[in-house]
Amino acid sequence: MKFIDRLNENKFYESHFNREIMQSERLREFVLGGVILLFALGSFINVFLFGDDYKEKIPELINAFKWIILLFLFLAVRSFFVRKVIKIRMKKGKDLPYYLRYINAFFEVSVPTLGIVILSIHIEPIAALVSPMLLLYFSIIIISSLELDPRISFFVGAVAAAEYILLSLFYINNAEHHSNIPVLDLPVAYIARGGILLVSGILAGIVSIQIRKKVFKTFQVVEERNELEKIFGQQVSKEIVDEFIKNNMKIENRIREVCIMFLDIRNFSKYCEGKTPEEINKYQNSTLGFMIDIVNKHGGIVNQILGDGFMATFGAPIPSETYSKDAVMTSMKIISSLDKKNESGEIPHTKVRIGLHSGEVVTGNVGTVDRKQ
After folding, report:
1. SS3 298
2. Can you tell me the distance from the alpha carbon of 55 to that of 58, in angstroms, rounded to the nearest whole number?
3. How far apart are CA 300 and CA 193, in angstroms?
4. Rounded distance, CA 7 to CA 13, Å?
5. What are the residues whose beta carbons fall under 8 Å from the beta carbon of 38, sequence distance 6 or more?
6. Burial of 81 (0-12, 13-18, 19+ CB in 10 A)
7. Would you call 145 exposed, middle or buried from its count of C-beta atoms within 10 A (0-12, 13-18, 19+)?
8. pLDDT of residue 318 exceeding 60
9. Where is pLDDT greater, at 254 or 43?
10. Strands, DSSP E only, in the chain?
């Protein structure tokens, strides 16, 4: 269970994963309710459409079906209310207590056992043990994988196996009549079925582990993206984020071929004379903002914003074969966009100077664990 322990140590994963479990719990109750209703409907059809045949052959079976129908309807209503309770707790941001999940699982997996007991009152116990109630065990075990916790699936499989084997041994030892099929009187036949139930629980647990790993991986990608945004702030384009995640969030110090852009607003100091800080900041945002967006769209990264300009890098930290071309295209796009904004009066008349330099640089992070550049 090292995987589970590692997951629970991280609060980010824990909170999000618990919510995912709550969602799966609601889905599981919905599926279980559907399965129960189908069993009840099947019993209803058997009794009321073929009731005459059953009355001639096995009159007691009709009474058994009536009780089973009531049991299934009760469980269907229960599943509906459980889903409502889970929904309310999710809205309040509360998790489902872990012990309640085990109690709920024990109650559900005991339903087939109770059904077999009801059938055994009205028909031969051996016939009840091999009735369709046995299939309901497997349905509940399969659905338990939606808990996203292998321990629940193992628990359900073990309880199902134990209840079925103990019930079978009790009926075989106290049977007044023996079956026409000798193998049905042998305890080993029922122990083997119980063993299959146990193995089914283990397999369902393995499936839930795989589902859990997929969810874990999804949360990991989300955290990596958040970490990337923490490193680069709002200066990184979506394409750079996606490519960086593919490289497993690694930035190694190495020599690269890059193109560095330096952009400067001409006569910025003169413009600021007599202006308030708010006016200056508004001007910076209106001019540098669209320029930085253009850099991002062409695969560049803005390393520094220097008041009246910025420095951007093309070709690092993610390598690019077209880094020089991207830098030139970015420069031309900035100039054309700036001319349009000047002509339309969208911004005060502005001129910029752009310098590009291509060559070898050493790339990597500089700083502390909390603050790097």
Report:
1. coil
2. 6
3. 64
4. 6
5. none
6. exposed
7. buried
8. yes
9. 254
10. 254-265, 300-305, 309-314, 352-363
Residue located via tokens 């993206």 = 225
Q: Radius of gyration of the chain from Cα atoms?
A: 34
* Burial track 10-25 (b if 16+ CB lie within 10 A, e otherwise): eeebeebbbebbbebb
In this predicted model, what pLDDT tens digit does every residue of 126-175 receive, in sequence order?
777 877 778 888 888 888 887 778 888 999 999 999 999 999 888 888 76
Instruction: Yes or no: say if 291 and 312 are a contact pair by the CB < 8 Å rule.
Output: no
pLDDT at 1: 45
Backbone CA torsion sign across 19, 20, 23, 29: negative
Tell me how far the alpha carbon of residue 199 is from its chain's centroid: 26
Q: What is the largest CA-CA distance in the chain?
A: 108
Give the pair of three-digit tokens for residue 108: 């559900």
For residue 29, the SS3 value is helix
Residue 347, classified by CB atoms within 10 Å of its CB into exposed (0-12), middle (13-18) or buried (19+), is middle
The pTM of the whole model exceeds 0.85: no
- CA-CA distance, 115 to 308, in Å (whole number)? 79
> Which of 232, 241, 231, 352 lies closest to 291, judged by CA?
352
Q: Which pLDDT value is given to residue 2?
A: 45
Q: Exposed/middle/buried for 228, CB within 10 Å: 0-12, 13-18, 19+?
A: middle
All residues at 6 or more sequence positions from 147 whose CB lies less than 8 Å from its CB, including other chains: 21, 24, 25, 28, 101, 105, 153, 208
Strand partners, 358: 259
Tokens for 363? Answer: 């790339």
DSSP string covering 95-152 = PPPHHHHHHHHHHHHTHHHHHHHHHHHHS-HHHHHTSTHHHHHHHHHHHGGGGS-HHH
d(CA 28, CA 67): 25
Looking at residue 369, the DSSP 8-state letter turns out to be S
Kindly tell me if the per-residue pLDDT of 317 is higher than 50.
yes
Residue with tokens 């919510």: 19
Nearest alpha carbon to residue 36 among 75, 2, 82: 75
